[in-house]
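#struct-pred
JK: can someone run the complex with 6-O-phosphono-beta-D-tagatofuranose? inputs below
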Amino acid sequence: CKGINGLDKVVLREPRGSTAEVYLYGAHVTSWKNDHGEELLFVSSKAMFKPPKAIRGGIPVCFPQFGSHGSLEQHGFARNRFWSIDTDPPPFPTNSKSFIDLILKPSEEDMQKWPHSYEFRLRVALGTGGDLMLTSRIRNTNADGKPFTFTFAYHTYFSVSDISEVRVEGLETLDYLDNLQNKERSTEQGDALTFESEVDKIYLGTPTKIAILDHEKKRTFVLRKDGLPDAVVWNPWDKKAKTMADFGDDEYKHMLCVEAAVVGKPITLKPGEEWKGRLELSAVPSSYCSGQ
Ligand code: TA6
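RT: done, structure tokens with the ligand placed:
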């Protein structure tokens, strides 16, 4: 169906009432609602939904690079391109009846900047309990025998009631690269993360499971990931927020990015090889009390 600015989007619905919406522009998930109709992802009220700008919020897909270096646009081009729907998807094992497969293949223009052939298949699925499952399969289809190397992230914006009452569990004592300190490598302290200022850290070698506890909503987001060893944690806070035209001044209070990623050790694929990166998100009631 048609979304904002007439962009095509697909709506997924599972029997108990959870829904998800994914735009063909960027294969960008912009909504994930539980069976009470509560929106679990953050999308800025100033998001532009206008190519070639990425949509501010939801789950931007960062490929073939995370971050900014070289000639590629920040976080790569995948999130700024139109993907197509695979109407006859392969029967991959999936415990979901409500899913869509989106495909991205290189354009002539992109081949100039990143001279590789690939097939990128993203499956977005709603599980029977309302979990949101994202599976990326990226295959090197170079005919010239050339391998290619990439980094990747599901740049997920979670909706939180109040960032100052959020904790993240699972990243304690890990090493991270601090984007605010020129990617300096440090080690995280020994207990759950809390937030009182801008944060932009790439945690390396993270566990399969990471939890984001929202005190006010008594809700915990659980990320389960496979093939994605790193996790980026980002909140722009007030000063950085004011520099972003597609982000409301106070919106930093109601969002947190925790991004399943592969950044520390880029992936290299030979022709014919395929990489798979799986992320499963669930939102469960939690009796978390801040300060515990
Ligand atoms: O994921 C954190 C980050 O790399 C930050 O440095 C910030 O740039 C953020 O991504 C948003 O990037 P974007 O290109 O979407 O504005």
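RT: quick notes.
Residues 148 and 241 are 35 Å apart (CA to CA).
The mean pLDDT is 96.
JK: thanks, will look after standup
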